[in-house]
Amino acid sequence: MAKKITVLVGSLRRASVARKIAKHAIELFPEGYEAEIVEIRDLPLYDFDYDDPAVTDKPTPEEYTKFREIIKASDGVLFVTPENNRTIPACLKNAVDICSKPNSDVAWKGLPAGIISHSIGKMGGYSSHKNLKLALSYFAMPMVLQPEVFIGNSHDLIGEDDRINNESTIEFIRGYIADFCQVVEANPRH
């Protein structure tokens, strides 16, 4: 049975560089892995009232429940994120917050995670990568510690076919995906 990898893209824009990187990265997973982008566009903003048993007039949104179940059924999660104002985009932080509750059933807990960050600048989303890693560390998520993937000048690496056009970048990401798959294998979820 194939290992299921959920890919979360930290950009809502259809033609975003993050989405293009994510789609190309999915192709680099080895046989035995099924990686798929799960959309976070329609997740309502996180509100603890939805998960507070004392609040009876605000039921948990169906989108929360469905998203949490997808994450719980995953063998790993790959985040592909741009950097917005030196941190992760609000849509991705919202997704992280949604699966951080309820406290008795945190969907992220122990889930192997990988992070690919990028920016159109030279630092490659360093700050967003570190911010996301910090947020995820709370959930004891096993991760590839080294290498880290910061793709700088990312817009210059996407060809007219919407794929990464730099062979050394492709091979670096392929190697990272292989390392991530080792973390998934070493930390079975199910």
Automatic annotation (TrEMBL):
One GO CC annotation: cytosol
GO molecular function, one term: FMN binding
Residue ranges occupied by any NADPH-dependent FMN reductase-like domain in the UniProt entry: 4-155
Gene3D superfamilies in the cross-refs: 3.40.50.360
Bilayer-crossing regions: none
Signal peptide from the UniProt entry: none
Name of the protein: NAD(P)H-dependent oxidoreductase
Species name: Boudabousia marimammalium
